[in-house]
């Protein structure tokens, strides 16, 4: 799936930047044909590494003079509203490149991203037929009531707009004892790690056609309400391992390829996902199994898919394999979605299916 990415605010911009980095330099090229960073804080735009300068859009200069919206999300809404043409103009220019969907990314607890994301999502939905997905960063508990309130208000506004929200919970992933910047760097790495596989699996190149191919529409149809993604990787046997019989064997070596594939999927679905979620309440699931072609075992794949069908609330599981020549591991990505509540913040979606809703400017 090729996604046009728009990161808003500090968190949104940094995560968009990292995703574009993977799309340019990683194994899954071209998944992000363009990425824009939108911010009212000039210094944060300057700190980005990969998004070209021409795609960094400073908004709200006359209101905040390049210093950001603080935690004032009403100001964030107002700025996004008044500068919407500065945001949409580059989008219109970029969308001539083929994309399957938009991916809007923002921290839910701040001002610019939390206020601006609903405005941008609403406008994208009015202007384009492509689905609009949102990646929202939940503030951690200790960031205080205002951030939590901003998150609640942002979700309430997005409720009924867009085609699904992938959540990443800073509370679950924050790294105690690290400098904030390093901690954000680690968290962003963890969030972005599974995304190239998830988006790239639908983009089949000649030498990468799997047995069970998924396409962009499978990925698109796997989103609903809130979703969380999990990732797991297991070392596979390399040709070198097979010709060195005296090498010390680990417990992973004892697994057959089928067991390895199954275990990778089960771990991805049950270990630490991007947020706290109960697998038995998921309404949809997407599973992607990637690895060297001779390690992608169809018996293991089918077993894992059946297991996932039984584990979630419905049996709506889409899945595909993604041969990766030269890899020495089997990796699995599982995306669980269709959740309507975030119990930690007392949030409940009223409209889990997408609908067109317009966002009003507030004073
Ligand atoms: P904005 O620039 O006004 O939109 O505000 P931020 O993007 O800084 O949003 C504040 C929320 O995002 C808080 O919960 C921060 O902890 C979180 N945040 C800020 N930067 C990052 C980041 O790079 N990664 C992650 N995971 N969270 C971030």
Could you characterize what this model shows?
β8, α14 and β9 form a beta-alpha-beta unit. It contains 14 helices and 12 strands. The strands form 2 sheets. It has a 10-stranded mixed beta sheet. A two-stranded antiparallel sheet has the order 11-12. By secondary structure, it is an alpha/beta fold. Guanosine-5'-diphosphate (GDP) binds next to α1, α6 and α9. The site of guanosine-5'-diphosphate (GDP) has 21 residues, from α1, α6 and α9.
Structural topology:
Elements: E1 3-8, H1 9-25, E2 34-39, H2 42-46, E3 56-58, H3 61-64, H4 73-82, H5 84-94, E4 101-107, H6 112-127, E5 132-138, H7 145-158, E6 165-169, H8 170-173, H9 180-192, H10 195-200, H11 216-221, E7 226-235, H12 239-243, H13 257-270, E8 284-291, H14 298-311, E9 317-323, E10 329-339, E11 341-342, E12 347-348
Parallel strand pairs: 1-2, 1-4, 2-3, 4-5, 5-6, 6-7, 8-9
Antiparallel strand pairs: 7-10, 8-10, 11-12
The structure holds guanosine-5'-diphosphate.
| Mean pLDDT across residues | 91
Poorly predicted tracts of residues: none
Sequence of strands across the biggest β-sheet? 3-2-1-4-5-6-7-10-8-9
Query: Would you list the SSEs in sequence order as H and E?
Result: EHEHEHHHEHEHEHHHHEHHEHEEEE
Structural class call reads alpha/beta
Count the beta strands. 12
Number of helices: 14
Radius of gyration: 20 Å
Main attributes of the structure:
two-stranded antiparallel sheet, globular, 38% helix, 10-stranded mixed β-sheet
């Amino acid at each position: 799936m090729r996604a046009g990415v728009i990161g808003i605010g500090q968190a949104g911009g940094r995560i968009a930047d990292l995703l574009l980095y993977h799309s340019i330099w990683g194994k899954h090229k071209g998944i992000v044909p363009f990425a824009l960073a939108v911010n009212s804080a000039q210094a944060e735009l300057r700190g980005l590494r990969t998004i070209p300068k021409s795609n960094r859009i400073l908004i709200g200069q006359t209101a905040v003079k390049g210093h950001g919206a603080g935690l004032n999300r009403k100001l964030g809404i107002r700025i996004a509203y008044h500068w919407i043409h500065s945001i949409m103009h580059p989008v219109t220019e970029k969308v001539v490149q083929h994309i399957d969907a938009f991916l809007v990314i923002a921290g839910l607890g701040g001002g610019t991203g939390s206020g601006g994301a609903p405005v941008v999502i609403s406008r994208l939905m009015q202007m384009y037929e492509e689905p609009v997905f949102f990646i929202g960063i939940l503030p951690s508990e200790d960031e205080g009531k205002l951030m939590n309130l901003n998150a609640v208000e942002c979700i309430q506004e997005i409720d009924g707009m867009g085609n699904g929200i992938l959540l990443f919970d800073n509370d679950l992933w924050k790294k105690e004892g690290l400098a904030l910047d390093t901690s954000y760097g680690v968290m962003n790495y963890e969030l972005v790690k599974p995304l190239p596989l998830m988006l790239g699996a639908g983009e089949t190149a000649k030498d990468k056609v799997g047995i069970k191919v998924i396409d962009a529409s499978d990925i698109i149809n796997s989103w609903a309400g809130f979703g969380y993604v999990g990732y797991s990787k297991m070392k596979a046997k390399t040709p070198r391992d097979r010709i060195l019989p005296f090498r010390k064997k680990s417990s992973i070596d004892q697994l057959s390829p089928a067991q390895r594939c199954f275990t990778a999927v089960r771990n991805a679905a049950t270990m630490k996902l991007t947020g706290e979620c109960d697998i038995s309440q998921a309404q949809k699931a997407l599973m992607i199994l990637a690895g060297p072609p001779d390690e992608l075992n169809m018996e293991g794949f089918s077993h894992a898919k059946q297991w996932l069908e039984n584990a979630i609330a419905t049996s709506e599981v889409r899945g595909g394999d993604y041969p990766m020549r030269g890899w020495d591991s089997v990796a699995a990505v599982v995306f669980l979605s269709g959740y309507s509540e975030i119990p930690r913040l007392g949030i409940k979606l009223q409209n889990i299916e997408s609908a067109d809703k317009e966002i009003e400017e507030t004073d």
